[in-house]
Amino acid sequence: MSDIHVVAISGSLRDASYTRRALERVLTAADRAGASTELLDLREFELPLFDADVDRADAGDAEVLARRVREADAIVLGTPMYHGSYSSPLKSALDYCGFDEFEDKTVGLLAVSGGAFPVTALDHMRSVCRALNAWVIPHEAAIPNGSAAFEDAEFVDPKLEERVATLGRRAVQYATIEPDPGSFEGDQNVGAEGK
To answer: NADPH-dependent FMN reductase-like domain: from which residue to which, for each copy (predicted)?
Structure first.
């Protein structure tokens, strides 16, 4: 497994982000499973709102972000839930990526909410990944009541922490899966091609 590289993208810009904390736990588990890991913290990238008339090379750090995602064997997307969906920073990051970055890649999903289970955010990310012909790990991590889930940057509930860690192990385990058959949505999403 030493050749497996797992990248996690944090869709939260908050300094004390529960999403980032959870993704760090995902990556720790992936590291322990033998992979190299990298956290892509979107606070560190200059990503303007996506404009299809602007080349990715001319859009701040979009090309750098896309290259680092492209180099991954498995990708874990993490987001806080905003208004029932995933965050706008993550949306912008995904808009700068396409089939070259996601097609036939293994993708894990993690979402955090301030209240109830962030199921719709997970569903929306799954739809985007399916449109890009990625293979989404069936196991996903949902963290409700984010402020109560952590104490001093550590998980309060060991079962929830284990669920998050399992996502990291599965990202390594399934990084080289044969993702056939492709999804029917993939050929319909011609806008993502050739950005």
So the answer is: 5-146
State pLDDT tens for residues 1-33.
459 999 999 999 999 899 999 999 999 999 999
What span, in angstroms and rounded, lies between the C-alpha atoms of 95 and 132?
11
- Report how far apart the first and last C-alpha atoms of the chain are (Å, whole number): 32
Q: CATH number of the domain at 108, please.
A: 3.40.50.360
Helix boundaries (H) for 33-145: 62-70, 88-95, 99-102, 119-131
Contacts 24+ apart (CB under 8 A), 189-193: 189/131, 189/132, 191/52, 192/97, 192/98, 192/99, 192/131, 192/132, 193/98, 193/99
The range of the structural domain enclosing residue 139 comes to 5-186
Count of structural domains within the chain: 1
> Of 69, 65, 76, which is closest to residue 24 (Cα–Cα)?
76
Q: What is the pLDDT of residue 183?
A: 55
